[in-house]
Amino acid sequence: MLKDDLPKIVTSHLPGPKSASVINRRNEAVPSAIRCGYPVVIKRGAGAIIEDLDGNRFLDFIGGVGVLNIGFSHPEVIAAVKKQAENYFHGMFNVITHEGYVKLAETINSLAPVKGNKKRTFFANSGAEADENAVKIAKAFTKRPNIIVFSGAFHGRTLLTMSMTAKKSYARGMGPFPDGVYRAEFPYLYRRPDGMPKEKAIDYYIEKLYETFRNCSDPEYVAAIVVEPLQGEGGFIPAPIEWVQAIRKICNKYSILLVADEVQCGFCRTGRIFATEYWCEAGVQPDIITMAKSIAAGIPLSGIVARDEIMQAVPAGIIGGTYCGNPLACAAALKVIEIMQRDNLAQRSIEIGKKVMTRYAEWLKKYDAVGDIRGLGGMIGIEFVKSKYSKEPAGELVNELTAEAVQHGLLLESAGIYNNVIRFLAPLVITDEQLDTGLDIFEAAIEKCVGRRNI
């Protein structure tokens, strides 16, 4: 069975001839701004394995950038979508009520650790839509104009979410951007100021938020503070719990809503169904949670959940859309959640994370080019530097590593504000043998590329 296979390259070079033909067609038909540096054209996928048109098999440590927590082509999800498709494909929720939407909203309401007893959920199509809707909801409830986001943040590519996203290579030439989006410094502890003890860092980053209040927007004009519990594109950086606790106190003091962007870190990726469950265990709850990616196993769907009084403050017509909460996507999402709970994929994420972190810890000691390792559960980043002493980012090395690994059947992807972090987002259904094989390929790539760079 494909899902249990190991990576194997059968062509003399990559891409193979059939894949190369499609890639050449892509290059002629699709905008080059939608880049792809991987020599892979998928024919089929199962579990954590992709087979290309030429019969090469690749182990996927990227997982659709967080979409495939239950893997490619899960047979039970396929069956659920087929069953729904036999009845109807579409029913716009503003016109026709369909039970799948209602049932999924009830399920999310029961699971999401947002503040409040009675909760309400509605659905959109993408993570960017979810984040943009969260801002609209926060403004509707608070009647305030401004929001605060953070360095390293990624929230999407719509005009508003491009302004929320820190890395401006995602927004080059797209301004002017909406007003009222202000940025504070995220606690990137590995790159805290030189000589600063860790125990002083939280106070330092909280003071940076107060600087944003002083320099950009008084807190009484801030509708929401938007936080990724574990930054994705920013470099797989967990938000320290002590910092989150301090942010929650500030939000309480100034009646600001705390929004948790769980687009990438939700649905068992960090060892909990929602990463904000860790916050809840520390006495902190967000007011709004956004979610997407692995919610529906690859069918476009996102969600926004908040307590009743927040959701009910939104005027009619402000939220919703033609495809939001599509019946096929809702059917997939309900089955995904059932599988995750039944198969205890949150615990499996923790097990995978421990194995990966153990191996990465060995590399941290062994290679001067490995600067830092961090993460939660099965969402882990490994940061590469030119030397541990300088901490100078080694983005070129990461490019070499990804190019080398794919030649041996392993898909890796970069992240981070300097593109010097490799993210681990392998499907949580990956087998132990596949995981070990992938880590072996990864280390062999480090050995080869670091050695090459030192010559």
Descriptors for this entry?
455 residues; alpha/beta; 7-stranded mixed beta sheet; 14 helices; 17 strands
Give the topology, please.
Layout: H1 17-29, E1 42-46, E2 49-52, E3 57-60, H2 63-66, H3 75-85, H4 99-111, E4 119-124, H5 127-142, E5 146-150, H6 159-164, E6 181-184, H7 198-215, E7 222-227, E8 230-231, E9 237-238, H8 241-254, E10 257-262, H9 276-281, E11 288-291, E12 302-307, H10 308-311, H11 327-342, H12 345-366, E13 370-376, E14 379-384, H13 395-406, E15 410-411, E16 413-415, E17 421-424, H14 432-454
Parallel strand pairs: 3-15, 5-6, 5-7, 7-10, 10-11
Antiparallel strand pairs: 1-2, 2-3, 4-12, 8-9, 11-12, 13-14, 14-17, 16-17
Helix pairs in contact: 3-11, 4-11, 7-8, 12-14, 13-14
Give an account of the 3D structure:
With 455 residues, this protein is an alpha/beta fold. 39% of the residues lie in helices and 17% in strands. The chain has helices spanning 17-29, 63-66, 75-85, 99-111, 127-142, 159-164, 198-215, 241-254, 276-281, 308-311, 327-342, 345-366, 395-406, 432-454, and strands at residues 42-46, 49-52, 57-60, 119-124, 146-150, 181-184, 222-227, 230-231, 237-238, 257-262, 288-291, 302-307, 370-376, 379-384, 410-411, 413-415, 421-424. The protein has a seven-stranded mixed beta sheet with strand order 4-12-11-10-7-5-6, with helices on both faces. Strands 1-2-3-15 form a four-stranded mixed beta sheet. The protein is globular. The protein starts with 16 loop residues before the first helix and ends with a helix.
